[in-house]
Amino acid sequence: MSDHATNPATETFLAHRNLLFTVAYEMLGSAADAEDVLQETWLRWVKADVEQVHDQRAYLIRITTRQSLNRLRSVKLRREAYVGPWLPEPLLTAPDVAEDVELAESVSMALMLVLETLSPTERAVFVLHEAFGVGYDEIAAAVGKSPAAVRQIAYRARRHVDARRPREAVSADEIRAALESFRRALEAGDLQGLLDVLAPEVVLVSDGGGVKQAAPRPIISADKVARFIVGGIGKAEVTLTGHPTAVNGNPALIVRVGDEIDGVIAIRVEDARITGLYYVRNPQKLTRIGSETPLTLR
Question: What integer pLDDT is reported at residue 6 of this predicted model?
Answer without folding.
Answer: 61
